[in-house]
Design goal:
Structural class: alpha/beta
Shape: globular
Number of strands: 7
Helix content: 40-55%
Radius of gyration: 19 Å
Oligomer: single chain
Amino acid sequence: MSTKEFKRAARIILVGAPGVGKGTQAERLMKRYPQLSAVSSGDLLREGVRNRTPLGLEAEAFIKAGNLVPDEMILKLILDKLKSNRWVSTQSSVTDPSPAQPSKNPSASFILDGFPRTSTQAARLDSLIPINLVVSLITPVNIILSRIASRWVHAPSGRVYNTDFNAPKVPGKDDITGEPLTKRADDDEETWRQRLKKFDDTSQPLLDHYDRKNVLWTVKGNSSNEITPKLFQELDSRFA
């Protein structure tokens, strides 16, 4: 895969239903555009808890009590990461009345993963830092359900196989260890239909929010390989 250099900073969010391949697209984007990094709210949270940072300890208390970590805390984690990379002013704060001034340097490009999930969270993120591209990834529900039906995992390592397009070398066996593959407990059609419906219910207001901001772009395809070239073409035209 050939690489491309950005000429301006890209601040991207990928939105798509479970099973649509957001992780695959993010990996491919970072390989094509070396200046692009991933900023995952979940990873930042786990890192904070593991390193016993003040914010991590505060978040851990919510998690242990069975509560969701408040949006403000997630925003602080994201802002701390952007500040430590010097992608925004180190003086920026979540209580600032106006958004942080992001760096224009192309190396200050990132894909934000895991946040926002709602229009309310998106509005709070707007007040923190301006996102300049939101990609809505769309794959038909019947294709997603077919992928899930064909998915097998090696539970100890987390390696994932798909009998349609990423089959193990020996059917039913992990390529590395030769151990048996299994199905995830929640990989049944009814569970997935419920997850997809919940995503539809919560994502539309989020997409509407970014559409009003004129930063929403939608791409459709039956497979990741069908979507990737369209995604590359769009990012090339916007940022490279």
